[in-house]
């Protein structure tokens, strides 16, 4: 066989193990995984037939079929005693879940785009007491509605809860999940959340039955280590700072929120890293020790340049500033008595690497220059025209940051380099306007 390359040339390929794979797939009794997506399945069929055909099945994908009755789902699961993962996405499931039997072998349930609400989830939880992963994407959920309490109980084995692509708007709804003792991963991407707070730190806004929520032996979200809140409406720094109060939160996604989008007035990656003391993975990228150190130093210098004469404002708006300044041994930058003009100038210079990546210009050797931190983006563009001799091309500048999948566009000609967090050792890409 062959495939076509990017240049439309034929590239020969050889299928290895084809006969072995076909032979294995033909032995239904040995199958452990099967996908029957979009095949018009509507019922379990004759009793005993499934068990006789695929008795060892562990994973079953029934996405996009004609199933709606939970009794049929129960019949299928009963026939598969080894079943661990069940995917029912894009089946419009009935809201009547009464009479479901105990299915204590099911560990992963995927109910994306099935139209069920949280009340049905509550009714289902007694049938799947050992569920570890529950996916509820795209079900138009607006809130968490426990049946017998103001907070969610049960789900004693649940480690991952996926509520992405719903309509949840208030953090109070999410707090109803805070007593799930084994919950490690909570996916809330693409909802409508605008504010995040931790119960211990918000005395003015108490959740329902806060005495029940804040038990002495268990802190809210005690084991949560991964929180994905990308694509929401978060724009307040207090929401970022409050994430430090979660006991074990290490993996955070904030992308596509106003606070994390420099194009919408948000801050670059290094500011988020500096404000989040414990984060190890930010927006899907690992935060290395080197990146953390560089980010924290850049952040301290940025704050010093903005709020140098207002310590009260710094304390209020930048809770970690004093801690980071002391930790990294950064002194206040004050000119010595009698210092000359050139000495003052040299103390404020930063070393940056300019790398030309404009396709129409061709390959250029990267340049390292020392410039005042107060240099504006507009001024740097003019300098780049001289450095790279590109008078005929209008340059466009990007800040390349370690760990960030995409460089940050420096789109304000009046802003200084320090405003964008450009510091010693930074790399700026020089592109051309389209």
TrEMBL record:
Species lineage: Eukaryota, Viridiplantae, Streptophyta, Embryophyta, Tracheophyta
Protein name per Swiss-Prot or TrEMBL: Tubulin-folding cofactor E
UniProt keywords, alphabetically: Leucine-rich repeat, Repeat
Source organism, top-level taxon: Eukaryota
Isomerase as UniProt keyword: no
Organism: Solanum stoloniferum
């Amino acid at each position: 066989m062959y495939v076509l390359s990017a240049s439309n040339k034929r590239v020969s390929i050889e299928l290895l193990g084809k006969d072995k794979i076909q032979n294995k797939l033909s032995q239904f009794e040995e199958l452990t995984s099967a996908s029957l997506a979009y095949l018009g399945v509507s019922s379990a069929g004759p009793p005993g037939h499934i068990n006789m055909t695929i008795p060892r099945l562990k994973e079953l994908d029934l996405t996009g079929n004609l199933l709606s009755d939970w009794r049929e789902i129960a019949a299928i699961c009963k026939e598969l005693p080894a079943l661990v993962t069940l995917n029912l996405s894009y089946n419009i499931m009935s809201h009547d879940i009464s009479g479901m039997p105990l299915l204590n072998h099911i560990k992963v349930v995927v109910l994306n785009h099935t139209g069920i609400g949280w009340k049905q989830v509550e009714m289902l939880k007694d049938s799947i007491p050992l569920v570890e992963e529950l996916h509820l994407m795209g079900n138009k959920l607006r809130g968490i509605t426990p049946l017998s309490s103001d907070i969610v109980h049960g789900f004693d084995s649940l480690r991952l809860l996926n509520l992405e692509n719903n309509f949840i708007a208030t953090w109070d709804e999410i707090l109803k999940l805070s007593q799930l003792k084994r919950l490690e991963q909570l996916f809330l991407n693409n909802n409508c959340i605008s504010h995040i707070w931790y119960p211990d730190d918000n005395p003015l806004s108490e959740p329902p039955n806060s005495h029940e929520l804040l038990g002495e032996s268990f802190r809210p979200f005690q084991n949560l280590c991964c929180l994905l809140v990308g694509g929401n409406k978060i724009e307040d720094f207090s929401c970022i700072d409050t994430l430090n109060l979660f006991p074990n939160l290490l993996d955070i996604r904030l992308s596509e929120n106003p606070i994390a989008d420099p194009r919408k007035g948000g801050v670059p990656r290094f500011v988020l890293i500096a404000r989040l003391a414990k984060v190890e993975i930010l927006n899907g990228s690992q935060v290395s020790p080197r990146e953390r150190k560089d980010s924290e130093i850049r952040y301290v210098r940025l704050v010093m340049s903005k709020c140098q004469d207002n310590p009260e404002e710094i304390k209020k708006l930048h809770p970690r500033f004093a801690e980071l300044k002391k930790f990294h041994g950064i002194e206040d930058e004050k000119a010595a008595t009698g210092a000359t003009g050139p000495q003052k100038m040299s103390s404020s210079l930063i070393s940056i690497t300019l790398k030309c990546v404009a396709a129409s210009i061709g390959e250029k050797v990267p340049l390292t220059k020392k410039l005042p931190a107060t240099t504006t983006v507009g001024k740097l563009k003019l300098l780049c025209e001289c450095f790279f001799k590109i008078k005929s091309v209008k340059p466009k500048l990007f800040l390349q940051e370690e760990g960030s999948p995409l460089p940050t566009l420096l789109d304000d000609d009046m802003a200084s380099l320090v405003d964008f967090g450009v510091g010693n050792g930074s790399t700026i890409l020089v592109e051309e306007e389209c």
